Amino acid sequence: MTDLAIAATGLRKSYGDKTVLDGVDLAVPEGTIFSLLGPNGAGKTTVVKILSTLIGADAGEIRVGGHDLAAHPQAVRAGIGVTGQFSAVDGLITGEENMLLMADLHHLPKAEGRRVAAELLERFDLADAAKKPASTYSGGMKRRLDIAMTLVGDPRIIFLDEPTTGLDPRSRHTMWQIIRELVTGGVTVFLTTQYLEEADELADRIAVLDDGRIAAEGTAEQLKRLVPGGHVRLRFTDPAAYRRAASALHHEVTRDDTALVLHVPSDGSQRELRLLLDRLDASGIEADELTVHTPDLDDVFFALTGGTRRTVQPEEAAR
Ligand SMILES: Nc1ncnc2c1ncn2[C@@H]1O[C@H](COP(=O)(O)OP(=O)(O)OP(=O)(O)O)[C@@H](O)[C@H]1O
């Protein structure tokens, strides 16, 4: 069995009478990317803060990097890096000075510190900007500097709290590449994101946090299988054609009589599409528009974060 980089059971946290985490379990295998998804205010940052020792949980067993967090917080801190909403970048000093400051914090000898700083600035494409104050950096450069600073301590587990929020598409793709390279180097990444596409693109496993609980957990593929959502959408302009189609396909369709749209459940495969088209042809019906919709993480997200309390296991989808 793969060793777990992060293992948490029964995490609870309340602020006054507001319960933010209501029994959260997490298991993140070493060397993987794990993504915690959830709507605003779901408690993602709270989870990151607890797992990275910044705040305490009210209850729960937590092991990070093989260390019991409650008993050995220092050992946990030594093995992790955290970047994101509480960035460590100081805008008043240069990128290089920020890096050297980190090297000092990690007690690296001066020459070693300079070597590591130069190497990381180069790796994150910041060598040319190294002597400029960090306040002059673009959003993407600041995020890269933030990650570079985290890597000075050579952490085995990195927490990235919404690492691409506010970045333009090019910077976002650069950040994705950086994250993939981190994992290739054996690092475990715990990522929170509000972008479903990002979790889909990067994460080995995804947990959907809703209302203080994990609503579902699995690979992107497993999660997509949890929700019905695959369908063919047929749109008509002629009400008579619409009615004929609705009666020809009557028990399989969902109707929208106002928009003259029919939704026919389908896995989007060539075989199912041909069957559908054959049936429409046989009845002499022609739709004005036909689009195939396969479920994506958006469907999962909206289906699971509607305030329900049922935990859905990926195995259920296979049945
Ligand atoms: N120190 C605090 N005192 C009181 N309530 C807090 C505190 N920190 C967080 N909360 C509340 O806990 C809930 C979860 O917050 P958290 O920041 O973890 O959510 P999140 O999922 O990271 O959201 P977002 O995507 O908006 O950052 C929110 O309702 C927030 O208002």
Automatic annotation (TrEMBL):
Entry's PROSITE patterns? ABC_TRANSPORTER_1, ABC_TRANSPORTER_2
Where primarily located? membrane
SMART domains xref list? AAA
Q: Kindly give the Pfam families that the UniProt entry links to this protein.
A: ABC_tran
Report which residue ranges the record marks as coiled coil.
none
State any single GO MF term.
ATP binding
Q: Hey, which family's this protein in?
A: Belongs to the ABC transporter superfamily. Drug exporter-1 (DrugE1) (TC 3.A.1.105) family.
Q: What is this protein called?
A: ATP-binding cassette domain-containing protein
